[in-house]
Amino acid sequence: MPPAIIVEHVSKEFILRHNRALGLKTRFLGLFHKNKREKREHFLALDDVSFTVEQGEALGLLGHNGSGKSTLLQIIAGILQPSKGRVIANGRVAPLIQLGVGFNPELTGYENIFLNASLYGFLNKDVRKRVKDIIEFSELEHFIDTPLKNYSSGMQMRLGFAVAVNLQPDILLADEILAVGDQAFQDKCLDKIAEMRSNGMSLILVSHSEDQVNKFCNYYVRLDHGVTIDHGPIIKLEVEKVEFQQ
Ligand SMILES: Nc1ncnc2c1ncn2[C@@H]1O[C@H](COP(=O)(O)OP(=O)(O)OP(=O)(O)O)[C@@H](O)[C@H]1O
């Protein structure tokens, strides 16, 4: 079986624009000399990152703020293009990346289910078969005909998660997914991810919680300033039950 995801020598360069605060006089002159104070800097957010996720495996992406985790996940999801290198995905990828990505705020929750699923490559007839399960999982029955712009961030997260997991993806990309939402829904999501993992789904999980990565993942990659500084298997320690004698 081919690997689920191959990340080959991926680099990503952004152009940072620095705009200095302008004084009144300069601001006035600036009307005639636009962008005179803008400085551009090339910034390497990812530098030659490579790894493979085998079918049914789960990889945890770790690293400090700004180390490049979300950028890498967006490249794997096809939302961003790498500046160098390439990503190969074998199977249907469901990205749970940022709130609102893949949704239209003007459309209702119901309409957004179809929009979002079409981005994952599902046909409307396939989605119709699953739409009841999606709505039920999201627990948003009463709001499903309301425009998404009136949803709270937690409600949007529920809908995004419900679509992604009920379409049975081969590979789930999850970026700090559980940062929003109440405890009961978070637990339901974690149970669902565990169930999907036991059914062979591959996973790339970005998390600041080492516990979460230890629980769900077999391997980890740690990034620092866009470079892989550490990687390896996650050894699950079986904690023996200790009986205390009174
Ligand atoms: N569109 C962009 N334009 C310019 N710089 C960007 C862009 N997106 C990300 N960056 C920069 O790339 C670096 C990596 O950002 P990224 O969001 O991937 O980090 P992260 O590891 O996911 O951080 P966090 O843990 O805070 O979510 C940061 O320095 C960020 O400022």
UniProtKB/TrEMBL annotation:
Residues 26-244 form the ABC transporter domain. The keyword Transport applies. InterPro entries: AAA+_ATPase, ABC_transporter-like_ATP-bd, ABC_transporter-like_CS, ABC_transpr_TagH-like, Bact_Polysacc_Export_ATP-bd, P-loop_NTPase. GO terms for molecular function: ATP binding. Signal peptide: none annotated. SMART domains: AAA. CDD domains: ABC_KpsT_Wzt. Pfam families: ABC_tran. Keywords: ATP-binding, Nucleotide-binding, Transport. PANTHER family: TEICHOIC ACIDS EXPORT ATP-BINDING PROTEIN TAGH (PTHR46743:SF2). Belongs to the ABC transporter superfamily. This is ABC transporter ATP-binding protein. It comes from Acidithiobacillus sulfurivorans.
